[in-house]
Every structure is written in C-alpha cells, then in structure tokens.
C-alpha cells in the first residue's frame, strides 16, 4: 500500500518521519508451487479485514510458504520484494523464515542478455506465449491501489487477477531463462547411496522440497 504523508509540494520533497500519516503495508500476494497446475494459485489479500491496511493475517501465511520453500523465484525480488517482506515480518513480530535460495529473473536477464528492457512486462511479452504480464484494466496505474483502499469490490477483483497473471507470466519466463543459467544447484545432495549434503552433513530435518514462484 502507498504511504500517506504530509507534503508541501509535488516535486523534490524530503519527507520527514513526523510527516508520515500512514506507513506502507502488504495488501495482497500471489504465489504457486512450480509443479502445481496453473489454476492452483495461492492468493491472499486484506479484503476481509476491517482496516484494509492491516496485513497481520497475511504475514503468518506468507512466512509459512517461505518456510516450506527451498527456492523462491521472483522478478527484482532480491532488491525489493524479499526485503519488503522481511521488513513487514520483523515489524509484525515474526521470526525470519527458514533459509531459502532465490532465483531473480531480472538478475539472470542482466547477466546473460542485453534485452531492450529487463522489465517483467517487456520480457514476458517477447518471450512468453501462454501468459504475459497484464496491463491494468479498469483501474490504470495508481488508481487500482487507491480504489482498493477505498473498498471498491471491482478493484479487489482486478488486484487479484493482476497478481495471478504476474505469477503465471513469471513462471513461464523463469522456465524460458532457466536453461541459460547455472547459478543455482537444484541438487544439494552428493551422489551417494544415502543422503549426504554437499557440506558433508547427514543430519536432516524434513522441511519440504518445493519451489515457489
């Protein structure tokens, strides 16, 4: 959600902490396990909360997904989404998720290619055939977030659709880029008759073996 602040002008503003009226929070998130069918998307938002900025019910659900995941795929997620999620988890009094590895499609694109743009909208438009990142429908740009926070049910529906297509198009893009990159070792175990981690340990605790997009 956008922050609400007091400001003196539209340009070149330095907003002080005492000018913050409402801080940002997570309004919604979508994800899916890589091996699940496309229609099985996980989606949660704050539409059932009295205060639509209240993400207290979302945070434990999001953390539990990260706890289960071995690898998390995102677009620009290392520098934005992951840190934003961590900030909200910490502010919500939750402990860090179990360790997971990350695959950031923007970083991989910058490493191996010179596309005209590394934005999700451009790459999914040029590389994906089944799903492409959606442009906004009835609520263009900022108006989607504004109308969501005003309780507009049409905005709730559009936010969900927008989220879901971000995930589906990202998944297709990930699978297109994956053969070009070797930055992630998907097999953390050595070639042995029993389970041995590459670090040499044989002490394991089952925490799941899925990849989340």
| Unreliable parts | none
C-alpha Rg (nearest Å): 19 Å
The major β-sheet equals: 3 strands, parallel
**Neighbour order of strands in the largest sheet:** 6-5-7
Number of strands: 7
- What fraction, in percent, of the residue positions are helical? 25-40%
Give the overall form: globular
Provide a count of the helices: 6
Secondary-structure-derived class: alpha/beta
Q: How big a fraction of the residues is strand?
A: 5-15%
N to C succession of SSEs:
EEEEHEHEHHHHE
The overall pLDDT average reads 90
First-last Cα distance: 21 Å
Outline the structure in words.
- By secondary structure, the protein is of the alpha/beta class.
- It contains six helices and seven strands.
- The strands form three sheets. It has a three-stranded parallel β-sheet with strand order 6-5-7. A two-stranded antiparallel sheet has the order 1-2. Strands 3-4 form a two-stranded antiparallel ribbon.
- Helix 4 crosses helix 6 and helix 5 (143-149) crosses helix 6.
- The protein is globular.
Summarize this structure as a short list of keywords or feature phrases.
213 residues, alpha/beta
Write the SSE topology:
Layout: E1 4-5, E2 20-22, E3 28-31, E4 42-45, H1 58-68, E5 69-74, H2 77-91, E6 101-104, H3 105-112, H4 120-127, H5 143-149, H6 153-177, E7 210-212
Parallel strand pairs: 5-6, 5-7
Antiparallel strand pairs: 1-2, 3-4
Quick structural overview:
With about 210 residues, the protein is of the alpha/beta class. The protein has six helices and seven strands, in the order ββββαβαβααααβ.
